[in-house]
Prior knowledge:
Blueprint: H1 33-43, H2 46-54, H3 60-68, H4 73-112, H5 118-124, H6 126-147, H7 151-168, H8 181-192, H9 196-211, H10 217-236, H11 238-241, H12 249-267, H13 281-289, H14 293-306, H15 318-332
Amino acid sequence: MGNLLKVLACTDLEHGPIVYLDFEHAQPTEAETAVWNQVSAVLEEAHGILAELQSYNGAGQEIREAIQNPGDLALQEKAWNAVCPLVAKLKRFYEFSLRLENALRSLLEALTSPPYAPMQHLEREQALAKQFAEILHFTLSFDELKMTNPAIQNDFSYYRRTISRNRLNNQQLEAENEVNNEMANRMSLFYAEATPMLKTLSNATTKFVSENKTLPIEDTTDCLSTMACVCRVMLETPEYRCRFTNTDTMLFCMRVMVGVIILYDHVHPVGAFAKTSKIDMKGCIKVLKDQPSNSVEGLLNALRCATPPASSCPPHTGDTQASVCDFNTYFLFPVNLQVHNTTPKR
């Protein structure tokens, strides 16, 4: 695979080392095969999940007619028959998030395990790094579609209201056998999130760090920050962008960059926006702002939704306070962010 990735530290990137992570053509080595096969089995379902979500139109018309005519049993039955297969589909999406969580854990174990440093892992295990990126790409794609489709929560809310009403009347519907009360509660929490898949992965990453107490937290955060740095440099450097053979790779890299930033922000003690963060947030945001707004609006919204706003945080000091200030700068003030060169002119 050659020297596709040569990174000594994120701070070295500005001095111009060769930085390129092959998201298009990386193939697993023998050492990667076991984990790669496990994750690949999960990722094979991802395209189908996205296609189903993209074509999800909901049962809005049927639900409105049923609500407006509560005494019309035919309309009630029509709405129920329209909603039930949609809820079954939402259940499949939720169950897929659990399989994705397990796949992420397997990749984190492989990419952070001793004796190699995170940088060495990314160089040695490019195929696993590519799968990690594909999971993030799917996650951001799923959440972008979910955020723009209110029918999902409307359908599920109607389903739960109907179930509750029938229970009060001592009636049980067949659909309850497929989505029982416990499953419905878990699905409700999942879809209540603005970015449910990203929330699942963030929680999984935090859990991975807390359960692996012998593994330094820096091994995980350095893996995430390095991927963010690599994506940023690939996006902002013409000589690396010209290596992309697929027109979708630009958006792929942007989604991966945003995904690892959010995971880093959840796992790192002071977050991604602190001055001590190993992620160049100004550079990353500038890369996004330099793209057409319609292609990055969903990614910027994901950053806003998945990182805690200053108003909801308790008083902070030191680096954490700086993190809150940076968050305000990026997202709370209506400015067009530009990264200015503060080096004095010669």
